[in-house]
């Protein structure tokens, strides 16, 4: 089959070539891939660190070509949304049925390819905050793919949404249209006033965002777009003066079992127009070098979608 292979000798570090056909385990279905969305972590880190010839890719949509032998998951011919550790940038991939959601008939599978990492991470992070109806939720790095889904889902969940971005003047209108009540440049101004944080940046931004938490608040650390570490100043973790019971929670989507219902629910919301996938770039996989350059150059706010085949 054809696939995008790691090849650091070419622009973008990826080229179309031949790869072995995947062999599904009994609990996996074989998917004929239609589209995949790119994530910053894949093209920034995995392309650099993976062996030559590796087939990468977390997000993919397509159609079930062979159902799982153990009887779990969707039937042959079902349109699906899938998540996995690799294999999405190929004509076919084998996927655990725990990580396969079903898509509505006739749905735009390109748009739904944005769901697994971006939408799934946003939904699970917000679940980790607990009930958000009427609570103040801060989203850092709100202009990225996960951030834009998080803003929309937090608003749907009844939160008062604070969206932080490095350029609020440029991105303010877009983020307010997605549901943000306030668009700000940072989190320092909310000292002790926020009930929950979904942090998509890491580094000093995470430290500042932790300081914004009110008593009983939770920060979920999801993204790490900066290479800087998190260095808390003396006293930052003291629990007096209204800072009792604040938490930092780490997060890894690949460790979240039973994602299938989440992916199905998110796919339905996108198909119904209740969630905007915020696609900023879309094209064939023969343009992968262009897509990677756009993403790594931070010229893409939202999601990039590759049409496979």
UniProtKB/TrEMBL annotation:
InterPro entries: ADH-like_N (IPR013154), ER (IPR020843), GroES-like_sf (IPR011032), NAD(P)-bd_dom_sf (IPR036291), Zn-ADH-like_protein (IPR051397). GO terms for molecular function: oxidoreductase activity. SUPFAM superfamilies: GroES-like, NAD(P)-binding Rossmann-fold domains. Residues 9-306 form the Enoyl reductase (ER) domain. This is Zn-dependent oxidoreductase, NADPH:quinone reductase. It comes from Actinoalloteichus fjordicus.
């Amino acid at each position: 089959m054809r696939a995008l292979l790691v090849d650091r000798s070419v622009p973008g570090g990826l080229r179309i070539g031949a790869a072995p056909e995947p062999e599904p385990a009994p609990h996996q279905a074989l998917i004929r891939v239609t589209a995949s969305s790119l994530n910053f972590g894949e093209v920034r880190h995995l392309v650099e660190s993976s062996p030559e010839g590796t087939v990468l890719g977390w997000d993919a949509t397509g159609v079930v070509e062979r159902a799982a032998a153990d009887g779990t998951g969707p039937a042959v011919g079902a349109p699906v949304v899938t998540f996995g550790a690799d294999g999405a940038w190929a004509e076919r991939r084998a996927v655990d049925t725990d990580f396969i959601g079903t898509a509505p008939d006739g749905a735009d599978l390109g748009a739904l390819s944005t769901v697994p990492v971006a939408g799934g991470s946003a939904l699970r992070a917000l679940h980790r905050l607990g009930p958000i109806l009427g609570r103040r939720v801060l989203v850092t790095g709100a202009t990225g793919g996960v951030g834009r889904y998080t803003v929309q889902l937090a608003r749907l969940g009844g939160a008062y949404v604070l969206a932080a971005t490095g350029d609020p003047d440029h991105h303010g209108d877009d983020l307010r249209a997605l549901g943000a009540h306030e668009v700000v440049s940072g989190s320092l101004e909310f000292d002790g006033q926020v009930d929950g944080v979904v942090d998509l940046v890491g580094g000093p931004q995470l430290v500042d965002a932790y300081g914004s938490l009110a008593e009983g608040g939770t920060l979920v650390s999801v993204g790490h777009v900066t290479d800087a570490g998190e260095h808390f100043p003396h006293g930052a973790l003291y629990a007096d003066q209204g800072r009792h019971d604040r938490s930092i929670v780490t997060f890894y989507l690949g460790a979240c079992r039973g994602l299938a219902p989440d992916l199905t629910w998110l796919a339905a919301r996108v198909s119904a127009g209740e969630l905007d996938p915020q696609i900023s770039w879309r094209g064939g996989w023969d343009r992968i070098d262009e897509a990677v350059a756009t993403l790594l150059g931070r010229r893409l706010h939202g999601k990039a979608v590759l049409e496979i085949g």
